[in-house]
Write a structure and sequence with these properties.
about 425 residues; alpha/beta; nine-stranded mixed beta sheet; seven-stranded mixed beta sheet; 20 strands; about 30% strand
Length: about 425
């Protein structure tokens, strides 16, 4: 066949088209195979409401409360993540507003959390019942009215069945959350109102959770000894139990100081295990050394070929700044790496000294004890003019029905385990 014949040219054209189609198909298939879904989480520690915080938030001119200034330096970090999650360690029980030992903060605290980008709050802690069951119920109603996702405390057993396991989802990634506390400061008339750390209850919950199509299971536990920088035997015991029974990530609150973080992959099962024993105080009026700050833990999950992995993990140190301006005390959460690089103005020398002590203490603790989780430092200002409304992300509650044979233990009669 002559190379210049019409038939040869026609065949050559068809072969070129076929080759182009083949290359395009291979490229598209490769793109499909390497496509990864992602979901990012930012965990913050204890959100408290001491008397000084309530007084600082009060606008006496019109008898209202304003908390947005508390979050102005960290809200951009919230918005860089799909979900920001924290421990609400106060009641929203209405007036009289009061701090320790019987916390009840203005509703505006939760409203400000929501406006600034915190969209999940955990409510199982020792202060949940500070204002009794009515306070617990009202807290739930306020969070529901603000459309803030929450779990850990409930109105009754049916409410627990419907809302015990919180599932969040973005793209093709589904993550489930369960939340428990070591105890309550007040009596419970019904143990279903508050999730108490109890191996029988937890194992029953996890047995059912594992039957569902979740990519990661995260347990948030209010536990440990207050003001101690190292986890106790109780924390280590329950961490082992949770990991053994399918939990992938454990987030700890309550000690009001930082405790170590660990990440490892178990060789035999390839299971990822990440634990932050205590995130410290996110905002409070505790000013003693090591209690005046905390950390934001950032995690990114990626899913490819039906396997979900933690691909990014790290933390930002935060410090609670309490300046006095125009004769009134204020509260601000400062990202330490920005403040120490002079990206935040208006910090006096004494405050800078106190913050640097917190930074040095925290870095020393984590350098000696952390496993495969490092600090994320940002040297540039990231404060942006951001809208107060976040884009919608899918959320659902998974119903967990306890079997008839399982009775929730009496609050004070339960075994210590």
């Amino acid at each position: 066949m002559q190379h210049d014949s019409p038939l040869y040219k026609k065949m050559k054209k068809r072969i070129c088209i076929l080759l182009l189609c083949l290359v395009t198909a291979l490229f598209c298939n490769a793109q499909k195979e390497t496509k990864k879904d992602s979901l990012s989480l930012l965990f913050v520690g204890d959100i408290m409401g001491h008397d000084a915080q309530i007084l600082a938030a009060k606008d006496t001119a019109n008898n209202t409360y304003k908390y947005d200034g508390v979050f102005k330096y960290v809200r951009s970090f919230f918005y860089e993540h799909d979900f920001t999650l924290g421990n609400l360690e106060v009641c929203l029980a209405g007036q009289p507003y009061k701090g320790y030992p019987s916390f009840s903060s203005p509703d505006e605290l939760a409203a400000s959390c929501q406006r600034n980008g915190i969209n999940v709050l955990f409510t199982s802690n020792n202060h949940t019942l500070d204002r009794g069951e009515k306070g617990l119920f009202r807290t739930i109603d306020v969070l529901d009215s603000l459309k803030i996702m929450h779990t850990g405390s409930f109105k009754d057993s049916l409410d627990r069945v419907g809302k015990n396991l919180l599932i969040i989802q973005k793209n093709n990634i589904k993550v489930g959350f369960i939340n428990y506390t070591y105890n309550s400061n007040r009596k419970l008339s019904d143990s279903c109102l508050l999730n108490i750390i109890d191996s029988t209850i937890i194992l029953n919950d996890l047995k059912q959770v594992k039957q569902h199509d979740l990519d990661k299971i995260i347990a948030v536990l209010h536990w440990g000894n207050e003001y101690q920088n190292f986890p106790n035997k109780y924390q280590k015991k329950y961490a082992k139990l949770l990991f053994k029974n399918g939990v992938d990530i454990i987030i700890g609150t309550h000690p009001h100081v930082l405790q170590k973080m660990e990440y490892q992959v178990i060789d035999s099962t390839k299971q990822e295990r990440l634990i932050a024993y205590s995130l410290g105080n996110f905002v409070s009026n505790q000013r003693k050394r090591k209690r005046d700050g905390g950390t934001m833990l950032s995690l990114t999950l990626e899913k490819s070929n039906d396997t979900t992995k933690i691909t990014r993990k790290g933390y930002y140190l935060t410090w609670i700044h309490t300046p006095t301006r125009k004769g009134k005390k204020e509260f601000e959460i400062l990202p330490c790496s920005l403040a120490e690089n002079h990206q935040i103005w208006g910090i006096d020398s004494l405050s800078m000294k106190e913050m640097n002590i917190f930074i040095d203490d925290s870095r020393e603790l984590f350098k000696k004890n952390n496993l495969n989780i490092s600090e994320i430092k940002t040297g540039k200002q990231v404060l942006k003019q951001l809208p107060y409304k976040r884009f919608d992300l899918k959320i659902e509650f998974l119903k967990i029905q306890p079997p008839n044979s399982l009775k929730y233990p009496s609050f004070f009669a339960r075994k210590s385990n």
